[in-house]
């Protein structure tokens, strides 16, 4: 089988598909033969993403959905199943970074918003797709956590809490779903860009003026990059291959694992 055909006949559902990592991963799976169902709250971004994938001869559909709305998530899963027959893979990737400020000033309403998107949202998609996969004989799920889910960074209380939760959800889901031939893993990117989240993180960490990062965004970016072993910014294009591996037959006995892309923070 050629590398291009690895996922032929399979359907991948991607959340956060209008964003950098979700789109890059959807495109990669489409290039390898999968039908891709792109889900996001951002309709304009979704339309653009789908038209780019179709322009490369990929098969893609788009579905506007708010991850925090459990009923909307159920509806979207039903819609994709009725169009594609079944969902083989879920890349559960939508996320929000939250505000940047120290713990004692972190606004409770933003804390709730981050948890609602990054934890409740991930749970809603995980549960709805798993319930479907239980009826079809199995599948594979990859949740996007973060290095902030392995080691809490400064000024990101809600994001760190939410991404630690994603890793916990991944571990429990992998055990609960193993009897149904459903594998559940996580990836934890470190600093990946250029892209919306990297650019925003550098700007906002600098603006906090904490003892950890320079108030000059260029210097703050250098400080962050020095904190990863390979001493460079990870590329968005360096993520889809890891997701594809975790979904593929090469990972047929891998479940409950979190892969820290970039190898950790020093
Ligand atoms: N870029 C990085 O450096 C980095 C590092 C670690 C983890 N991550 C994680 O990777 C994932 C993707 O990040 P990205 O860099 O592509 O960011 P991005 O901002 O480009 O994409 C995130 C997407 O999630 C969507 N989204 C937000 N709230 C939603 C909701 N309620 N319902 C549906 N969709 C919603 C956004 O519209 C956006 O398209 C996120 O979970 C993020 O936390 C990113």
UniProtKB/TrEMBL annotation:
This is NAD(P)-dependent dehydrogenase (Short-subunit alcohol dehydrogenase family). GO terms for molecular function: oxidoreductase activity, acting on the CH-OH group of donors, NAD or NADP as acceptor. Gene3D superfamilies: NAD(P)-binding Rossmann-like Domain (3.40.50.720). Belongs to the short-chain dehydrogenases/reductases (SDR) family. Residues 10-190 form the Ketoreductase domain. PROSITE patterns: ADH_SHORT.
